[in-house]
Write a structure and sequence with these properties.
- The structure is a homodimer.
- By secondary structure, chain A is an alpha+beta fold.
- Chain A folds into three domains: about 55-90 and about 120-280, Butyryl-CoA Dehydrogenase, subunit A, domain 2; about 285-450, Butyryl-CoA Dehydrogenase, subunit A, domain 3 (Up-down Bundle), CATH 1.20.140.10; about 455-590.
- Chain A has helices at about 10-20, 20-25, 35-55, 55-65, 80-90, 105-120, 120-140, 145-155, 285-320, 345-380, 385-420, 430-440, 445-460, 465-480, 490-515, 515-550, 560-575, 575-585, 590-595, and strands spanning about 65-70, 70-75, 160-165, 180-185, 190-200, 210-215, 230-235, 235, 245, 250-255, 265-280.
- In chain A, the strands form three sheets. In chain A, strands 3, 4, 5, 6, 7, 10 and 11 form a seven-stranded mixed sheet that branches. In chain A, strands 1-2 form a two-stranded antiparallel ribbon.
- The two termini of chain A are about 45 Å apart.
- At the A-B interface, α1, α9, α10, α11 and α12 of A face α1, α9, α10, α11 and α12 of B.
């Protein structure tokens, strides 16, 4: 069985040596609580919980799955027990305000926690994860009464939450939402309709589940401007928050899926269920974007987790399994054959996983430092700085979501590949990573949807403003490090890549002005292309931090040496993927669009 | 449910217009039987069987899987019934000699059949498929008595067969085989050992199963030069072929796998089971290569089938599902949204599947024309010509196997991606294609093993002879078509690609001479790179054939137009993948090899 070990050394390297989270936390209002000792203690306690409680339930949860009967969902054996421990430890409220019973620590600490949980057992992590999405929505858009009513039990983890967006006829295209909301005489609403793909829509972990639901008011404008957002509790409550009778929202069935079997994916029927409007009428989609952005960053964690877990799974096998001899001569003369790890192509696969896991982690930690600053600006009422950080994070979000989940699927598949035929067998646990990872490029907006968001909205609609700001940041790094001898190989390549990134972006903008199909035809290649360059920037930052540590400690410790070697691998063997992508994304949409619909058949 | 439709138009286009199989068949001894009418009739009958009998059992077989109890395997409901129909139709013997009850038709017709079976229901096709591997081995290496005894019941399909190579400690590295064979007084052998991953090792379809087993004789040399090959029947037989008592070979368990659930993957225990030597002592691996090469080409069919089935599954969804509006303006004003197929990136995914399915099919049909010629040379005793064809096929085999199965996995994943979140749900059938396809890059030699075979053995060890011969063939095509106006865009690109392929190959050969790790570090990128160029050659051939047909028929029929447009798509958007691969494969192995083993950890 695959046992997860939290990569604390790497996490602390990023936190301390690459991004200096200590100075960062000291700059945040209330951030002084997050002292170095506190951060270490949180990481270590969380690691222990994930390693000893969640990881052992990952494979059994996949085998057993969720059970559905009489509108009720039973989660796999042991899952509720782990959840009880989780809420007893106060983990659900780690980054939520103290006034609602949380620990009030910066958001980024919640992300470090989510990374460990999500890597140890992604499906289990969906239950508290979705709940946090619901909590964020209420916190940002709910009125005081709603916050008073719902936040504390959710922060404590006694109640869970969901996000109900998708319907049978629409997922991406939420303008097609049909669920209806009608005003009751008491100011509440009757919600009627069917929602599908509702993660954690029903389960046995908590006494109540708070659904956040998109629905239409009577006479609302068609499309996305006529959608409102509602709170619909599974069990009704009175003003003092006591549970009353069951609300008329029911789970109709759960989906049979390729993976994440332990996570319930529910069809939810709302049968004149009682609900409460959040925010303004017809502004529901706007409110939902708060959730979607955090959910997208949350999903990027699944990508990183897939890389990490697949890497952790395949390294020992590559070291233990004996097969063939090295082409440069026998390496283990006392064994019947050499280990897999002597073979260059096996190393290529392992290093790809490692480079993606660690590079992705760096991208994520950087992003959540921005998110911390946004929360701080929000608390301080500094809207201008908030908007700037929001733009920067908005630019990075689709890259994190799509690029890192694609990398996660690739790494999971490489993990299987290292095992050869054994990778296909369930008991090793490698194929589960592939199945679980597979959803990450689909939900919370497919890779194609993220790519349109990046290129169409964030880059082109924003007239390249956030793109240029991010490029300027890399250029600043280049300027500061170009004279460091040990950084020259990286800086030289990075400089060239960034210059090309600029030119390629300008060329696409020009072409898209003439033909809007250019946006769609270039988008996915452009996103992946951008992802490789962004990751190259963070690999350069990590290499620099490692060199600095080596100098300071006057010795090449294996960890820092390995960091630099992985950076070199990334620059040599992964980054050149940009060559093909920059060629294909610049092609005219003609080769995609010329074929009439009836051409799409060959039988 | 996903219903397979045999792509007969495309198959006939290749058979008649691209490769002129009619002239080819007329050149083969006994090939005159394969008249145009006969070929059409076979294709249509087989298509009907696959569409109406096998395809409907594909999804139910995945859900139900094989059942194991008391050393016996029960295949999914309906599978034996379909098998009975298959043997009643005489399909198993299609390409086997008439003297053993077969139809004596060329091998290629058997491949066309296998493609349809394998696309409709790959797992079901494993049972007759493995049997054909065993039959080929007996036919090529068995003595007359063995042929007389085993061939007829196997050709008739009353008996099945397996190939028993892998053991717990070794798959690729067969030199580690431990299974023992000891001579009995009657000239037979006692076989003792454990084999794993034995496809069709036990099932309920036939009254007997003939295992072909690798084992070691006492005192045999260590490694691959000490392995012999044996026939071990499940049920012993007397000289007249009548069934006697059960032999002591038993299925111990079946594997729980990611996919191909309907195919039994067995752990087989040989407990002093009675066996018969095939071929010479200690030459077992040589004999086995016959099987392995056909098995590898057979596995490439799984790649093509995955592309085809995923394409067939995603096209209707892309046409029916309404989501968002085209960026160039509303296309379906009467609908609530436009179809997915208006979006350029959805078309990119569909066209990628289509280009791989049809390009892969062309590569396969070309390869089986060579195989036909080899069989013909074998029959005529023309060993020199045989060896030349063998070299050509040997060069193409690892490319077919690895490149097309990687393309199959990619296409299967794109098929899911077109469905968005629905792709992850079992009922649509798209995720099954991904799970089933996933094994194809693992068994019969992983992609890494194929890549070493291509670059290390076929190209470098062969001093580029077969490589150059294949390049000469493409150059001849270029020469013949460079002045055709409509072919110029293809020829220009192909010419450049082939020139680079030559240079890149020579450069790698030079570098590998200095550092043998270059072979392993370049191999997978080199194989994929070569695959894209080989497929480009066949897309150029198809475009040319389509242009010729359009001229002859004085009109642009949708099929031929679509063929040319798909060729253009391939050249514009798939072939540029060579740019990155040719960069990475030329890199020094240093970035893979420098990290010490202890560097492979980050926790």
């Amino acid at each position: 069985m695959l046992a997860y070990k939290a990569p604390l050394t790497d996490m602390k390297f990023l936190i301390n040596d690459v991004f200096d989270f200590q100075s960062h936390y000291q700059s945040l209002r209330g951030g002084e609580e997050a002292s170095s000792e506190m951060v270490d203690a949180i990481l270590e306690h969380c690691a222990k919980f994930c390693e000893s409680e969640l990881s052992p339930l990952n494979q059994s949860g996949d085998e057993q799955g969720c059970h559905f009967e009489n509108r009720q969902v039973t989660t796999p054996d042991g899952w509720k027990g782990a959840y009880d421990q989780y809420i007893e430890g106060g983990w659900q409220g780690l980054s939520f305000p103290t006034e609602f019973g949380g620990q009030g620590l910066p958001l980024s600490l919640g992300v470090f926690k989510s990374e460990m949980i999500g890597t140890a057992n992604w499906s289990w992590g969906m239950y508290p994860g979705l709940s946090q999405g619901a909590m964020n929505t209420i916190l940002m858009h709910g009125n005081d009464k709603q916050k008073d009513c719902f936040m504390q039990p959710m922060v404590e983890g006694r109640w869970a939450g969901t996000m109900c967006l998708t319907e049978p006829q629409c997922g991406t295209d939420l303008g097609q939402v049909k669920t209806r909301a009608e005003l009751n005489s008491d100011g509440s609403y009757k919600i009627t309709g069917t929602k599908i793909f509702i993660s954690s829509g029903e389960h046995d972990m908590t006494e109540n589940i708070i659904h956040i639901v998109l629905a239409r008011l009577p006479g609302a404008p068609a499309g996305t401007n006529g959608i409102s957002l509602f709170i619909v509790p599974k069990v009704n409550i009175n003003d003092s928050g006591e549970l009353l009778e069951r609300n008329t929202v029911y789970c109709d069935s759960i989906e049979k899926k390729m993976g994440i079997h332990g996570s319930s994916t529910c069809v939810m029927n709302f049968e004149e269920a009682k609900g409460f409007l959040i925010g303004e009428q017809n502004k529901g989609l706007h409110c939902m974007f708060t959730f979607m952005n955090t959910a997208r960053i949350g999903t990027s964690i699944q990508g990183i987790g897939s890389c990490e877990l697949a890497y952790q799974g395949s390294v020992p096998y590559a070291k233990d399994r004996l097969s063939m001899r090295s082409l440069t001569g026998t390496k283990q003369p006392d064994s019947v054959a050499d280990s897999l790890i002597v073979h260059p192509d096996v190393r290529r696969m392992l290093l790809t996983q490692k480079a993606f896991a660690e590079g992705g982690r760096a991208m994520l930690y950087f992003a959540c430092q921005i998110a911390d600053k946004m929360m701080d600006c929000h608390a301080k009422g500094d809207t201008q700085a908030y908007d700037e950080y929001d733009d920067e994070l908005g630019f990075l979000t689709p890259i994190l979501k799509a690029f890192l989940t694609e990398a996660g699927s690739e790494s999971a598949n490489l993990g299987m590949q290292v095992y050869g035929g054994h990778g296909f067998i369930k008991e090793w646990g490698m194929e589960q990573i592939v199945r679980d990872a597979r959803i990450s490029t689909l939900y919370e907006g497919t890779t194609g949807v993220q790519a349109l968001d990046l290129l169409g909205r964030k880059v082109l609609l924003g007239k390249l403003k956030t793109f240029k700001a991010f490029v300027a940041q890399i250029k600043q790094f280049i300027k500061e490090h170009k004279n460091k001898k040990e950084m020259k190989p990286f800086i030289k390549v990075l400089k060239k890549q960034v210059r090309q990134w600029q030119w390629n972006t300008i060329k696409i903008a020009y072409k898209a002005n003439k033909n809007r199909d250019m946006v769609g035809s270039a988008s996915v290649d452009y996103l992946m292309y951008s992802g490789y360059i962004v990751m190259a920037y963070f690999w350069a930052k990590m290499a620099d931090a490692a060199h600095t540590k080596i100098k300071a400690e006057k010795g090449l410790t294996p960890f820092y040496a390995s960091k630099i070697q992985t950076a070199e691998f990334y620059y040599e063997r992964i980054l050149p993927r940009t060559l093909s992508l920059q060629a294909t994304m610049q092609k005219s949409p003609e080769s995609l669009m010329q074929m009439p619909e009836e051409g799409f058949t060959n039988s």
